[in-house]
Amino acid sequence: MTNVLALTLRTAALSTALILPPGLALAWLLARRHFPGKAVVETLVTLPLVLPPVATGLLLLELLGRNGPLGSMALRLFGLDLVFTWRAIVAAMAVMSFPLLVRSARVGFEGVNVRLEQIASTLGASRGRVFFTVSLPLAAPGVGAGILLAFARALGEFGATILVAGSIPGRTQTISVAIYQAVQLGHDREAYRLMGVSALLAFAAVFAGERLVRRGPH
Amino acid sequence: MLLALVLAAAAVLPARADELVVFAAASLTDALQEIGADYERTTGQPVVFNFGASNLLARQIREGAPADLFLSADEAKMDELEKRGLLLEGTRRSALSNTLAVVVPKGSTLHLRAAADLASPAVRTLVIAEPSAVPAGIYARQWLRSLGLWSKLIDRTVPTENVRGALAAVEAGNADAGIVYRTDAGISQNVEVALEVPAAEGPRISYPFAVLRRTGAPEAARGFLAYLVSPPALDVFRKLGFLIQP
User: Fold this and answer.
1) Closest partner CB to B173 (pick from A65, A183, A185)
2) CATH pick for B100-196 out of 3.40.50.300, 3.20.20.450, 3.40.190.10, 3.30.1490.10
3) Tens digits of per-residue pLDDT, B78-103?
4) Which of A153, A213, B56, B101 lies at a CB distance of 3.0 to 4.6 Å from A97, suitable for a disulfide?
């Protein structure tokens, strides 16, 4: 039980940390820049939200499997297996929660007054400095909500995870997978306990996220 | 357009009232699809299958799933339903058996001369069906235990939801070896049988069939059950590598 919880929290935290840099960069680009193919990028980013998770999982399995492009590379270069390990869990969580982070952070960046960024620039601030001292702090509620939503989504990831990471007790069993497994084995009490824990976690994350959004720049 | 889609879906979705719904062990998939098609062709009685791990199917039946027949991959799951009074009395029978096989991805360089070689470091992942609940996994664990290998292999064992999941992991090359039924190994072009487990050495594998009490069509269900153990159906099972129990 604590094992399952620890693995879930660790992988979800790692996945959220991993998607943060690319997620914020993309959110900022989508909020501030126009470029060819923007609509395609927007659609691609949203895809994991609307595609059946299991379909995303299948795609990941093809990519991360020992004979897949990424899986074979990891095996060749580092001797690492991806599928059926915690790495696959992180990959599934990252892909599934990426859209939530990007969408929410994008709204955050869009809410920042462009004039403030321009003023900072004319006062001599570099682009990076403008981003980190003006845009990011002002967009913090949206970004924060995105992080929490992504984290909560990662905690609950199931469909893609079970395909790429399986359900190895103590090694790749996250809360969702453990619940499914417990139900299958007829261990209902265990399943209900896990359900309670995951409900608490999800509630806490969403509640915190909502509060952040409320404090937004409106 | 959305409306058209919804209407199209509605036209396709409803189950036909005269269909027999059969919950069957995943390892029976290929045989039953062939037998079901034959049966429908000759009798006009449509049969639809829900394939999965027998423990999962038994659970669904316990929860009231609308099934007419249950074809399990082990006696324990059927015993459980019988104890709960969910079987139509007098319909339970066991006609099929199977053996286990160790499979490796096609072209694998792994050399397994005996079961003990599974403990070699070259086998990093061994995939089997969930060993505490799914029949194929329980059988595999029994076999490994009887050889004193289970405790050595448990750390490299990856459980899957059902036996076909284990087969798929080996087919994709994501596991170094897997233990499945001989009949599963037979249907795949992408695995090689590294070791056959002789019937005498492996656990006793038995597939019990029964009509479920809640069936709305007991006569049709009995009819299909009788067909399953008749020569034309047994020929299909035999062709796919199943053993026929006397």
Assistant:
1) A65
2) 3.40.190.10
3) 999 999 999 999 999 999 999 999 99
4) A153
Task: Write the CATH number for A182.
Answer: 1.10.3720.10
Amino acid identity at B161: E
Residues 124-143, chain B, touching A (beta carbon < 8 A): 124-125, 130, 132-133
First-residue to last-residue Cα distance in chain A: 42
Domain B11-97+205-244 fold is: D-Maltodextrin-Binding Protein; domain 2 (3.40.190)
ipTM greater than cut 0.90 = no
CA distance B130 to A103: 39
Contacts of B124 in chain A (CB under 8 A): 81
- Written as one letter, the residue type at B213 is R
- pTM of this prediction? 0.81
Query: Which stretch of A100-104, A186-190, B105-109 has the lowest confidence by average pLDDT?
Result: A186-190
Minimal C-alpha gap between B120 and chain A (Å): 17
Name the phi and psi angles at B147, rounded to 5: -95, 0
Q: Report yes or no: A65 at the B interface, CB cutoff 8 Å.
A: yes
Q: Where are the domains of chain B?
A: 11-97+205-244, 100-196
CB contact under 8 A, B174 and A181: no
| A112 min Cα distance to partner chain B (Å) | 37
Domain tally for chain A?
1
Residue B27 is classified by DSSP as G
CA end-to-end span of chain B, whole Å?
Answer: 58
